Structure formats: structure tokens, C-alpha cells
Amino acid sequence: MNDNHILQMKQSTGFQDSMPQENVVIYIKDLHKSFGDNHVLSGFNMKLTRGENLVVMGKSGSGKSVMIKCLVGLMEADSGYIEVMGKEVSTLSQETLDILRADIGFLFQGSALYDSMTVRENLEFPLRRHKNKLGNIVDTTPMVMEALENVGLAHAIDLMPSELSGGMKRRVALARTLILKPKVILYDEPTSGLDPITAKEIIGLMRSIQKKYNTSSLIITHDVDCARVISERMILLVDGINYAEGTYEELLKSQDPKVEAFFKK
Amino acid sequence: MSLSLVDKTKNFFIEIGDLSYFAGRFFKEVLKPPFEFKELLRQCYHMGNRSLVLVSVTGFIIGLVLTLQSRPTLIEFGAVSWMPNMVGISIVRELGPVITALICAGRIASGIGAELGSMRVTEQIDAMEVSGTNPFKYLVVTRILATTLMLPLLVIIGDAIALYGSALVENLKGDVSFQLYFNKVFDALEYGDLIPATTKSFFFGFTIGLVGCYKGYYCKKGTAGVGVAANTAVVFASMLLFFVDFVAVFVSDIFYEL
Ligand SMILES: Nc1ncnc2c1ncn2[C@@H]1O[C@H](COP(=O)(O)OP(=O)(O)OP(=O)(O)O)[C@@H](O)[C@H]1O
Ligand SMILES: [Mg+2]
């Protein structure tokens, strides 16, 4: 109730013209974030529409992870407007935020598997609190199996994360992200630290998941190959702003030195 | 990077402030449902299990050594029959709780610091948060409760084993039967000895859990951060333990006078 009220207030104070339309899933306007003197984001804008694959590319340390963490409320932005599926993130109460998060999948840069739990327990963990979304599930095994089969790791269900290779960890993390059937998936460097072949496998999985569940994806990467294969649209994050935008081909043709730097071999 | 004494003192008080805030958050969250009973039990088992052997061995040796060392002096004064009273009171009132707490600071606080620290660094805590579980509740509250509940238990076990060690010496060297020894110990002890000691142990446990969680939860990024978290958790916890001990003895002394 209260949240809606605040949202409407915001809308009536000058946000109308730039307000996102129906099919916009994520909307970021003028996002600022600094750590002390380190101005990481200084006016970043972004829009992700339903069913789209958007790639955000930027150098290491350019603030990609910071941006994505502001999106899910893990970090507080200094200023700016962030809306995810029609809700302004910074105004949500803990409960509403948790409900919203059930619709957002987040694949962490380093997989972030809970290393004191088995693969099965890792996958069951998100189910503990999001029962409201799924109804009262008694037996979680079919869900865990389905998610693991999606990434081709059904046999690893009782292993510990320490017994998995880097690529397998990433796939389990992907399965954990998928288990709640999110509408949007945020990938933080899905292919970093993997060899090219495993990276290709992960990209293949991402695409098949996208087709199967019709999700929207925001992919953060500095891997040009990954961007070429998966992106429908790209944003280059340079100096804390969305420096350039367009399809892969469009950006490839650009004469701007900062854009060219991304594609130089 | 070497800091001046002023900066160090300032940092110390900032740290104390942050720690108090952290403790406040614990008390706020501990009463709010949902409760993580399963994880609490797991942590209790884990912590008890991890320090039981160490506490037992140390307790036994302390009892043994204390008795062996004080025997000659007590014999000189012709007061060796007071051995159970002296050892009993010193172990139950002070040595048992403090030594057990120090061992647990080394074992448990560093363990928690390292565990939570590496979870922080590898974004597992963030992952928990986005999957709708309050990581403070799931990780911190359960661990602090577990140490608070388990430390008094460990102290009691440690005390008992220390007294057994002492009785063993008396039995071998002084021909005192175990039954006589323990009868004398229990005659010497009063509730006035047991209650402050047990209460103190709860606070010790709380301190250990609090410092370990605090250091781990706010661990700096990078693997070096995890080492620092584990290390400073032990140092900070041990220091605070003595402070808590001082306050506890001071307070119980006031009650004793009344
Ligand atoms: N919690 C934090 N405290 C202080 N500074 C931070 C914090 N998190 C990130 N930064 C700083 O913000 C900047 C951007 O970090 P971020 O992790 O977003 O980079 P990135 O674009 O994801 O890089 P990479 O590709 O290496 O993951 C870095 O300079 C980093 O030092
Ligand atoms: Mg990053």
C-alpha cells in the first residue's frame, strides 16, 4: 500500500515523460554510486524490455557488478531511479523486496555456491523462503531434478561444491538461479574464468533456458564472443555512464576510440 | 602502513561502536520470526563437537598441574587437606570459565570469522539475500545463540574434568579417595560460586559468537581479508573476554557484599 503511494508520488513529480512502458522489465535512470572518492557510476541509464537479451559490457572495475547489485537491492544507490517489473526497488519493504526477488534470477560472478551444503541443498535453499510463490511444496526433489537436468548435471546431485569443477559450479549456480522460474535473469559474467569450450556450453545453456522459459536476460560481460553470440542489443559502460548503445554489428562499425577498444583483438 | 597511537585508539572506539550496533541488530532480529531452529541445532552440535576434546584435555591438565604445583606449599603450611576446597573454588569460579572461553575464542571465534568471511568474499551472503533468506538471521543469529548456549555446557564439562584431574593427583600422591575428594569439593562450593560463574559463561559465549560473526560478516574483499577476519576475531574476542570477566567479577563482588 505504502509503497504504491510513494511510487505514484514519484510519478507525479516529473517522471511521467520518461516513465517506462508496459513491456519494460528493468528501467534505470540516472544511477549514481560512489565509494568515497571513487565515482563508479555517474548517471547510468538502461532499459530492458520483455524477452530481450541485453548485454552490458565494460572494463574490469567499471562498475558492472555494482550496477547489477543496485538493481536487486544488495547495494544502495546514491541517487537515481531503479524500477524492476513496475516496482521501484529503493522504496520496497523487506517483504515486498523478497517477493520481487523471487522473480529475479541472479547468477553471481564467482558462482557463489554455499560450500557447506550439497548440490541438492544448494538448490533447495531458495525454495525455503519462496514457498508463497510455489504453493506448499512437500517434495522438492522433482524441482531440483528438473533444474539440474536443464544444465545436464542430474548425476551431481549429492556432491559437495568443492568436488565440482569451475564449469560444473557455474552450471549448478545456473540451476539454482532457475529453480524459482524467474522472469528476469541477471548474469554477472557468466563465462569469466572458464575455458572457451565450457564458456560456449554455458552460453548454449543460457540460450536454451531463454527459449524454454521465455525469460528476459541482462548479461554482464567483458567477453566479446559471448556478447556477439547472445546479445540482441548492447550497452557499453564507460566512465560510469552508458557510453554507447546498439546491436553488436552497429557497435563494431563505430569509429569512436573508446568503443573500438572493446573489439580490438 | 603504520598508524599513530591516536588513530589506533580512535579505530578501537569506532570498532567498539560498530560492535555494539551489531549486537543491537542481533537483539532486534533474534525475536523476529521466522526462526532457524534447524540451523541453530546444527551450529550447536558443530561448536560443541569442535571444542569438546580441546576443552577436556586442557581442563584435565589444568587440574593436574594446579594440584601438583600447590601441593608442596600447602604441605608446608600443613593445609594439604584444604586442597579440594582451594582447587574447587579456583577452578569453578575463575579458571574453568576463563580458560574454556579463551580456548573457544581461539577455536570457535576464528572458525566463525573465517567461515563467514569466506562466505562474504565469495558472495554467498549476497546470494542468500537475493534468494529471500535473511543472512543475518540465518548465519549470525544462529551462531551467536549457539555459542551463548554451548559455552556454559563446555565450561561445566571442563570444570568436571579439571576436578577429576586434581582428584587423581590427590588420590595417587595423598591417598585421598575420589569420593572424599569430591565430597569436600561440593562442601566447599556454594550457589554463590556457581551462579556467577555460569552467568559469566553465557556472556563469554555471547562475546565469542558476536566478535567472530562481526569480523566475518564485515570481512574485507579478497582472500587476505578472510585471514585478517579470522585473526582479528581471536585477538579482539580474547581481549573482550578479559574485560567481560573483569566486569563480571566486579558485579558479583558487589552482590556478595550485600
Ligand atoms: N563494497 C565496495 N566498497 C568499496 N568499493 C567498491 C565496493 N564494491 C565495488 N567497489 C569499487 O567499485 C568499482 C567497480 O567494481 P565492480 O565490482 O562493479 O567492477 P566490475 O565492473 O564488476 O569489474 P569486474 O569485471 O572485474 O567484475 C571498483 O573500483 C571497486 O573497487
Ligand atoms: Mg564484476
Automatic annotation (TrEMBL), chain A:
The keyword Transport applies. It comes from the Bacteria. Keywords: ATP-binding, Nucleotide-binding, Transport. Residues 26-264 form the ABC transporter domain. SMART domains: AAA. It holds the Pfam family ABC_tran. One of its GO terms (molecular function) is ATP binding. Coiled coil: none annotated. The keyword Manganese does not apply. This is Phospholipid/cholesterol/gamma-HCH transport system ATP-binding protein.
From TrEMBL, chain B:
It is a multi-pass membrane protein. It is found in: Membrane. Keywords: Membrane, Transmembrane, Transmembrane helix, Transport. The chain crosses the membrane at residues 52-75, 95-117, 138-164, 194-214, 226-251. InterPro entries: ABC_MlaE_roteobac, Permease_MalE. It holds the Pfam family MlaE. It comes from the Bacteria. One of its GO terms (molecular function) is phospholipid transporter activity. GO terms for cellular component: ATP-binding cassette (ABC) transporter complex. NCBIfam families: MlaE family lipid ABC transporter permease subunit. Belongs to the MlaE permease family. This is Phospholipid/cholesterol/gamma-HCH transport system permease protein. It comes from Saonia flava.
